[in-house]
Amino acid sequence: MATELLTxxxxxxxxxxxxxxxxxxxxxxxxGGVSCxxxxxxxxxxDLVVKQALPExxxxxxxxxxxxxxxxxxxxxxLLHSIxxxxxxxxxxxxxxxxxxxxxxxxxxxxxxxxxxxAGEIHPSIGSDLGKILATWHNFGFKNEGARRQFSEDSLFxxxxxxxxxxxxxxxxxxxxxxxxxxxxxxxxxxxxxxxGDFSPKNIxxxxxxxxxxxxxEVMHTGNPVFDLAFLCAHLLCKxxxxxxxxxxxxxxxxAKNFLASYGSNCDIPIAQSLPRHIALIALARVEGVSLxxxxxxxxxLRITSKTKSIIANPMATFEELFQWN
Length: 326
Fold this sequence. Notes:
The chain folds into two domains: 11-104, Phosphorylase Kinase, domain 1 (2-Layer Sandwich), CATH 3.30.200; 111-322, Aminoglycoside phosphotransferase (APH), C-terminal lobe (Aminoglycoside 3'-phosphotransferase, Chain: A, domain 2). Helix content is 48%, strand content 13%.
């Protein structure tokens, strides 16, 4: 475990000791979600982001997480940048002893996709681009045994996704526990490709040209591709259920449909029939799990619970049923 977390005061000497910068530099603290210290450092010749994994995530419920996820992230970033260089930052350095990685900073005008959508800036073409990017990664992992071996240790996925999302919801919904266990078993059976594990709007930056750049690869593992599809769609569903604006609802629904259509037309792996149930479960977890969304009011939360619980219990549920306003 890291003995000391980096701060705005200590990051410049740290980077100098790693030989990554020299001379004067400025430091900016970035919003790193709940799992990391994230600092931007700009010198005369370098524009970097330094990310250090926290031992305990910043959520209301105690949520400890193995800091080795920083090492996983660095290896994943290096691999995926080599496959889709325009869609993944460039890894500069990995410090395994301090669970810290340094990457190139994205263009400063880039915006966060989650915040864009909450502000009403919704471009369904981004869904299409993300479907193609994810299909490219899944195709690579499906065909590349070496990549699957590299990310075959999946305890972080269980710790950071299965337990706080699937098991936490099962513990609060006894009538759905068996249905949820079936979904967990499905995830555990399929180890067919490399899976991002946190394919979420908060981890996607949008360029001035409305092109996505994906971040946060801490939960990369060899597993079931349905999880990445469900994780993104669940976040879109939460935003769909949040708004009462019909125009925004249409754009959010189209974003999800474009994402799945683009993925389906570019990926060699069929989309699992269980996808709607995984989407519903993950969306419900954002209301009843460990990692709760911060933008749903009481009415939005009620819409999520009312919609998702019936879907989880129905093996024949469809995607269209999820994105209906009723």
